[in-house]
Amino acid sequence: MTDNAPIWADTSGNPDGPFVVLVHGSMDRSSGMLKLARQLDDVAHVLRYDRRGYGRSSPHHGPFTMGDQVADLVDLLDDRAAVLIGHSYGGNVALAAAARFPHLVKAVAIYETPLSWEPWWPGSTAGAAAIATQGSPAEAGERFMRRLIGDARWDALPDRTRETRRREGEPMVGELTDLRNGPPWLPHQIGVPVLAGYGTRGAAHHRQGMEHVAATVPGARVVALEGCRHDAPLSHPALFAEQMVLPLLP
Q: What global pTM score does this model have?
């Protein structure tokens, strides 16, 4: 492993099918999209990857700006146009790629993607709370995970796993701080079909955010996934594939 790891990626599915790329969120990794990839294997050529600083693309010391995130994605596309599926922060990577490289993006699905730069976006989210409190990036990573899974589950994790997640606090703080500084894409820049999804059991601000995207991005549609929370690609992969991915495939 080098000090600044290359971007790890894996492909699966039907090589003759449409090209689909799954982009994970903050403090996650490509394995969180594995169940969704399996739902698509028969109909699509699927690429999953660990964004810089996470999973097998760690350790990576940045920078963690949106420009660098998009550059990583474009390198993986290798001049192949794709349907991009972005979970949480990954939705912003997908939309930013569509805005900057429209010839490489056929369509985009985003799910509960944070619009942190909007003045109405709450400052009490897990990501905002983690980076707002003073301390090291590792401490911010631990705060995020404790809020996400609870203290008891965090304390029960193996020492190695806890240390890995603490190390991922660096990319989390970097990318979420960058996201709060201004919009990584503008609605009028998006010229491809967009589905914006939220879970009916999720937070109200996620619903508001996705409805905002559907109202401002030309031609975008909002999709409500019944019974889902923020982790829908993992908890309800078949439903997610049916309502968020398959409608975008040729």
A: 0.94
Per-residue pLDDT of the chain (250 residues; tens, 9 = 90+): 345 779 999 999 999 999 999 999 999 999 999 999 999 999 999 999 999 999 999 889 899 999 999 999 999 999 999 999 999 999 999 999 999 999 999 999 999 999 999 999 998 787 777 777 768 899 999 999 998 899 999 999 999 999 999 999 999 999 999 999 999 999 999 999 999 999 999 999 999 999 999 999 999 999 999 999 999 999 999 999 999 999 999 9
Which residues in 101-118 are b (16+ Cβ under 10 Å) and which e?
A: eeebbbbbbbbbbbbbee
Contact present, 105 and 81 (Cβ < 8 Å): yes
Phi and psi of 221, rounded to 5°? -125, 145
CB contact at 8 A, 19 and 248: no
- Bridge partners (DSSP) listed for residue 105: 82
Q: State phi, psi for 249 to the nearest 5 degrees.
A: -85, 145
Q: What does the alpha-carbon distance between residue 112 and residue 199 come to, in Å, rounded to a whole number?
A: 8
Q: Please, are residues 83 and 108 in contact by the beta-carbon 8 Å criterion?
A: yes
- Residue 198 near residue 111 (C-beta atoms within 8 A): yes
CB 21 within 8 A of CB 80: no
CA distance 237 to 231: 10
Q: Tokens 């097998």, residue?
A: 56
Work out the widest C-alpha separation in the chain, in whole angstroms: 50
**Backbone dihedral angles phi then psi of residue 173, each to the nearest 5 degrees:** -60, -45
Please tell me whether residue 199 adopts helix, strand or coil conformation: strand
- Residues 110 and 91: beta-carbon distance below 8 Å: yes
